[in-house]
């Protein structure tokens, strides 16, 4: 298994022989994706880049904060930026089309966040490979946007969901089912985003950041994982830290329980990213640690430490 680790000080790689820096130092990586042997990297304060044949090239895009990609649709990749905007490539990232319909949404010019430069970012993008024309994008403090025609027209979804969504998961098998980890708990829609159910039974840390779905053959086999902190990131450096707890749900978020074996509970550092291949799950933290679970999140083993603040993960199975 090959693991790519995006951090606030560069991109790192692990191939079973320890972690090595893959990028120049100083890159504050926002998101990373592996696609068809290439690597796309978003960077805070810089243009996104592509690693192909061991060479880095700059992409003709603004500052990318989120990618959207599935190996089942290898030619299609989405990019979200700060200020909030969206692009799509239908040729494996070689050319990009700007989704100008986003700018016509009511209230777009008034989207604003407290932190400088006060421009909201796209925090996550996802879609189901079975319905690749329907795409969901989470925009900081503006909720979720949806297109059903491949990016031409967009709609801002409301229906009771919190305005800052950190992670979106479009169910790969069930049309219209989307999960969302927000700053006020976990949400699910069963109708494509018209109405959202807030699902926090068992969750004591409501500031949720990462989430991941481990799909089974049926709904009963699906597993969800998320991680929550007691407060936003600005407070994680306080003496009590993030007090992070990782949660698992076996019923589409209707109920949750804490998983701590090999991981601990009330962690000072925050679990900030998940990635998976098969039943194996990798978790990365703000403290630069990595853990692996081989049983769908029930138990964990530390596999890396000493890295910078982990912002994103991508994995490829061995072979």
Structure characterization notes:
With 319 residues, the chain is mainly β. It has one domain (2-316): Methylamine Dehydrogenase, Chain H, CATH 2.130.10.10. 0% of the residues lie in helices and 45% in strands. The protein has no helices and 28 strands. The protein has strands at 2-7, 10-14, 19-21, 29-35, 38-43, 46-52, 55-58, 64-69, 77-81, 85-89, 97-98, 122-127, 135-139, 143-147, 155-157, 165-170, 178-182, 185-189, 197-199, 207-214, 223-229, 245-249, 257-259, 271-277, 280-285, 290-293, 301-304, 310-316. The strands form seven sheets. The chain has a four-stranded antiparallel sheet, with no helix packed on it. A four-stranded antiparallel sheet has the order 4-5-6-7, with no helix packed on it. The chain has a four-stranded antiparallel sheet with strand order 8-9-10-11, with no helix packed on it. The radius of gyration is 18 Å and the shape is globular. The termini are close together. The mean pLDDT is 94.
- Proportion of strand residues: over 45%
Tell me the structural class: mainly beta
Q: Span from first to last CA?
A: 8 Å
Rg over alpha carbons = 18 Å
**Domains (count):** 1
| CATH homologous superfamily descriptor | YVTN repeat-like/Quinoprotein amine dehydrogenase
User: What share of the residues lie within helices?
Assistant: under 10%
Could you name the CATH class? Mainly Beta
- Give the second-level CATH assignment, the architecture: 7 Propeller
The helix count comes to 0
Low-confidence stretches: none
What can be said about the biggest beta sheet? 4 strands, antiparallel
Shape: globular
Might you state the CATH topology name?
Methylamine Dehydrogenase, Chain H
